Protein: tryptophan--tRNA ligase
Organism: Lactuca sativa
Amino acid sequence: MGRSLLSQFVNISSTCPRFMSYSTSSKLQRRLHLTQENHIPIVGGVSSQRCYCSVATPEPVISETSSTSIKKRIVSGVQPTGSIHLGNYLGAIKNWVSLQDKYETLFFIVDLHAITLPYDVQQLSKATKETAALYLACGVDTSKASVFVQSHVRAHVELMWLLSAATPIGWLNRMIQFKEKSRKAGDENVGVGLLTYPVLMASDILLYQSDLVPVGEDQKQHLELTRELAERINHLYGGRKWKKLGGRGGSIFKVPEPLIPPTGARVMSLTDGLSKMSKSATSDQSRINLLDSKDAIANKIKRCKTDSFPGLEFDNGDRPECNNLLSIYQIITNRTKEEVAQECHDMNWGTFKPVLTDALIDHLHPIQTRYEEIMSDRGYLDEVLAEGASKAAEIADSTLSNVYQAMGFLKR
């Protein structure tokens, strides 16, 4: 799951208190000069960015002036394995910056998912902090969103076990990513966690009564499993059965919907336009990491795979690399597809590659500068993650308590 985690939020009953957006404490605001006027601007930032993430079904209108309106809730996360790359950023994190103004958002580092395949034990905690710092450097605002580490909210693991008891093994055996990764690793090297991590992913989402899950095309199957599990638990334990046990009755879980961005949801490899940009790819040349130096970015773009067709164009099935590079350029310059197509139509690769390189360097420089500031004050990051986990746990514990009650457990 370098995979971004998958959610739209309606009312949660009085037995499941709504998570309220919280403002960063004055202490945190003083550290690193976090007042709004001192935020380092990011190209295509929230104030000017056109949200390129849309929902297939019409969204209810939420009045920004109404004091009683309730924002829909979204949760998402990224694994702390390998370096955060352009695919993670354009496919997920950059989109979060747009979503945090419109929705109630929880963004976490999914460290529990990171151990489903062999990993560097010495690097896990370090990578977790670095990933959190990149969230903030990319523009996630802790006065609008909760940022925390998955393993710091223990309800994730508890709910996973409860859901596992109700998950048919056949549902997990059909997961495409499990089949692909287990085939590569070999049966002797595959742990049970690789099979059951979609249940943990479902727990991540259902704990927070999420309405929407930002999800790429390759993760729709996992979200569908989450939806099926929510409906199964609601059927088995909800409604009158739950009410007879002293609960409120009705649905235990909200059934989340996918939020799929039409652009940037699937950024492809620089060495193969038919493969997704991935942390697990053998060659570092296949991806632009957010912390790559100017020289590294220039070298990777210079050497990336292209074709011999004249001109540049979108959506030609015979030119996957061309479509990928133009799409990256479109998103990081915050322009329309039509504008980019017109600008680049008569360019050759020798002309376009330096233009793309400069655009990438200009876009990533503020992120890299902000990242260095955050990492230089570890105490600040620790406080952000502690606050985020505390706020997230308020929702998660309430949901978990309801599930325990509905499934017939003795009250603690």
